[in-house]
Amino acid sequence: MQPVKVALLGLGTVGRGVYRILTGNAANIAQRVGAPVEISRILVRDLTRDRGIQLDPSLLTDSYQDIIDDPEINVIVEVMGGIHPALDYVMDALKRGKSVVTANKDMIALHGKELFAAAGASGAGFFFEGSVAGGIPIIRPLKQCLAANRIQEIMGIINGTTNYMLSKMTLEGMDFDQVLREAQARGYAEADPTSDVEGLDAARKLAILASIAFNSRITLNDVYVEGISKITARDIAYARELNYVIKLLAIAKETPEGVEVRVHPTMIPQYHPLASVNDVFNAIFIRGDAVGDVMFYGRGAGELPTGSAVVADIMDAARHIVHRVPAFMGCTCYEEKPVKPVALAESKYYIRLTVSDRPGVLASIAYAFGDKEVSLASVIQKHTDGDRAEIVMVTHRVREQNLQDALRLVECLSSVDRIDCCIRVEGE
Amino acid sequence: MQPVKVALLGLGTVGRGVYRILTGNAANIAQRVGAPVEISRILVRDLTRDRGIQLDPSLLTDSYQDIIDDPEINVIVEVMGGIHPALDYVMDALKRGKSVVTANKDMIALHGKELFAAAGASGAGFFFEGSVAGGIPIIRPLKQCLAANRIQEIMGIINGTTNYMLSKMTLEGMDFDQVLREAQARGYAEADPTSDVEGLDAARKLAILASIAFNSRITLNDVYVEGISKITARDIAYARELNYVIKLLAIAKETPEGVEVRVHPTMIPQYHPLASVNDVFNAIFIRGDAVGDVMFYGRGAGELPTGSAVVADIMDAARHIVHRVPAFMGCTCYEEKPVKPVALAESKYYIRLTVSDRPGVLASIAYAFGDKEVSLASVIQKHTDGDRAEIVMVTHRVREQNLQDALRLVECLSSVDRIDCCIRVEGE
């Protein structure tokens, strides 16, 4: 059989993983595809840099034109990341009918619609399993294996950096700054950790998952986002006392008022399957009307895990080429569902307050909550230093708007120093 | 678009689930497939029996010939179970080039080779996601999403009945007979529970998974099988003391001496992701050379969960028909790997013995083990009734053959009353 020729755009962490897998597992891959899969060009910015892998230097090029004009190259693998020039290259390739494989969540979460439209118009295959949760199969399972279901809910741990940090805080009692430094030293967090720590990375992935699950285009801008930087060792200890674990969850639900999409620190019961997903592992919990609850677990990032997903996509694209069959799993956003404002979302809430330690304080707080129809499920009051006390409350299910209104009232009470923390409680 | 016409063979639990999903989610399914999917005939033995669902009685037929001779029916969905006549019907359909969807693990585990050959010869699609682990996506993820990997190991909880029973024994301290009666009362175990309890059901599913994972045909007869009927509340209590949990695991490994395939009660560490899979839930843990560890979790049986997998397959078959594209994911058993005899398999072992409570007994036992090169990792000795004692040991990793030889020596010691239990320890 004629080999299927592939070009890599980029040779960073994921690119190296793809190269290693395609060369290291070549014989099996050829058998499973029906033809050898060959990397014939690799686009890099700097032709001379040492990349820590052995490769034939003649594969490297710094000219995208060289690649796109080569009629023998049928699959373009974009693993450079970022929006520009990745988007321009990918759009160009799709318009020319070349299959594209990408792991670029930023690009899909913002420009998914135009990418699918370009692929649909030319009949090119467009594959992006590696864009969410690294090596964990999730895009194809959602699109195919669970296609018989109306998906009701997705809850996922889809950012490894923050899960590593929260796991360390939970299991070893470390505080936020300390664990962030450790994560940076280990290469799990970047020098500027904002995108991970503030939840943006998870929000991009959630936009992609929710679009597929609910058949309606969700973009990054639709997702309500809160990061973990305000989580303290103190809240983690209280969570344990209440039999919860704190995770940064990406949550998407279909509701009568529209699609809820939010990323925020969340307390979940210790018995929940996501509660024991620790370290850099990711897991995605899905509820379908037929299948019930399913969960997918594995490594959400890294050279070889993400490479595993990208190469699986390359193999799928190659199979279509070998069998001369057009790609027919295109865009699945055949509906336009409204996005539900977060103010209308319902949740239980954990709230921690610092107050004056004197009689009547709790009553005034409870009165303020009651005034906004927020009912309390449990209250713990602890004396702290001097004349201060700490109150920890968990509410019953309530609308976000009511909770925020109540918190504004509580904040104004003279006996309340400050609202230290407010974390949603889910999964019960 | 012209509807894709489907016939169901059988209307038992899974058949009803398929009917409910195809009719209940019809609009979404039509959108996702690109054409409506219509059940046009249902084969049943008794046309008059009440099946607890509302359906047009003219759909029912007791003649397979009616179905197979209908040129408009393109997808045959076999959900009758058993080998005959299911195998004859399915072979006939495949030979005629009709796509077949089946959830029949018994048939595939025994006759997979000839089924794939028939499908390959005619170009018919052959789909069987529902045959393993109910609604959990596993066949397609193994064949496609993890295709870039050399799979090294599979460890799965793939029988819901035994997992329910072991969970109850672990969490509520019930004994085997008591929990079996409860499982039967709840409909989780059949009147004759042999196939579940003795591990045969799990062995069939493991044969299917291992064939895909290692690209070499494994049949039911290749799988070493031990059931859970000898597991006592006592062993479960000792497992807890040793920080283990007992699960009925289906294990497949690729080793230099061949493929290991075995189903048996297994102690795994409490921190292992499979340890917290309780009740009727299933989970499959897979280790690939690129992806690392991944796990798939969900409901392994039931009308709607298994229906979810079967309908996903029907939708895949229908997409191929709509796009006029032949099925091209055929048999992946392109190698012939030997099956490793269980005598050569390596494991740690938990062993419980009843012995005379007098000095020197432990020394004689330890000597017998040492003689067969079995080294002991830990030993607990407890006084029981009268002059008897109980010894619980965990070995280091050792070949099964050596362990069995050692047990034969130990059995002959005059101070040893009996070997009460021997359970493999894995996953550390």
TrEMBL record, chains A, B:
L-homoserine binds at E190. CDD domains: ACT_HSDH-Hom. InterPro entries: ACT-like_dom_sf, ACT_dom, Asp/hSer_DH_NAD-bd, HDH, HDH_cat, HDH_CS, NAD(P)-bd_dom_sf. Its cofactor is a metal cation. GO terms for biological process: methionine biosynthetic process; threonine biosynthetic process. The keyword Amino-acid biosynthesis applies. One of its GO terms (molecular function) is NADP binding. Pathway: Amino-acid biosynthesis; L-methionine biosynthesis via de novo pathway; L-homoserine from L-aspartate: step 3/3; Amino-acid biosynthesis; L-threonine biosynthesis; L-threonine from L-aspartate: step 3/5. Pfam families: ACT, Homoserine_dh, NAD_binding_3. The active site is at K205. It catalyses: L-homoserine + NADP(+) = L-aspartate 4-semialdehyde + NADPH + H(+). This is Homoserine dehydrogenase. It comes from Desulfofundulus australicus DSM 11792. The lineage of its organism: Bacteria, Bacillati, Bacillota, Clostridia, Eubacteriales.
